[in-house]
Amino acid sequence: MQKNEHQPVRDFINGMDNVFKTLLLYPVPVIAAINGHAFGNGSILSCACDFRFMRSDRGFFCFPEVNIGIPFRWGMNAFMKKAIPLHILSQMEFTGNRYTAPELEKLNIIVKACANQEDLMAQALSFSKTLQKKRGIFGKIKERLYSDIVKVLDSDHMPPSASIDVLMVA
């Protein structure tokens, strides 16, 4: 039996899907504190979180996949839409443009554009204290709120027979 040379790629993709799903369904609010550039998987990962904060003094947020010919997977788009309104997400995906924290705050993609690293952590921690509710409820809320996204993620899992050609466009 010949070793499948693309299996490491499938394993990585499926592993990332598991990370996204874990963040999406984690039974407490998940806050992303973006302290620099968030491109590609970094920006996508932040969309799996419930809330996002970002430094204003450094870093850009971007989906560069259009520039390198990698289409977004169904599951990625599903949870990116929960974080970014569709009309803005389509613009971000089609252009590959970079966005600053103040721009993202105006678009309600992040909760707060923070002055620097110290302010980022202070703001994110302060916000987290407003979420100190009965913890048991968060898991059930997320399970029901994101059930459609989970279905898409689960159906988008790459089986060993799947071609990785669907990940690249010439």
Task: Explain what you see.
With 170 residues, the chain is mainly alpha-helical. The chain has nine helices and six strands. It is globular. The two termini are 30 Å apart. 25% of the residues are buried.
Which keywords apply here?
three-stranded mixed beta sheet, 2-enoyl-CoA Hydratase, Chain A, domain 1, 6 strands, 9 helices, 170 residues, 11% strand
SSE blueprint and pairings:
Blueprint: H1 7-25, E1 31-34, E2 38-39, H2 41-48, E3 51-55, E4 61-62, H3 65-68, H4 74-83, H5 86-95, E5 98-99, H6 101-106, E6 112-114, H7 117-129, H8 136-145, H9 147-155
Parallel strand pairs: 1-3, 2-4, 3-6
Antiparallel strand pairs: 4-5
Outline of the structure:
It is built from nine helices and six strands, in the order αββαββαααβαβααα.
Instruction: Tell me the major beta sheet.
Output: 3 strands, parallel
**What string gives the helices and strands in order?**
HEEHEEHHHEHEHHH
As for the number of domains, it is: 1
SS summary, helix count: 9
Strand order of the main beta sheet, please?
Answer: 1-3-6
How far apart lie the N and C ends? 30 Å
At the first level of CATH, what is the class?
A: Alpha Beta
- The gyration radius over C-alpha positions equals 17 Å
- The CATH topology, please? 2-enoyl-CoA Hydratase, Chain A, domain 1
Strand content: 5-15%
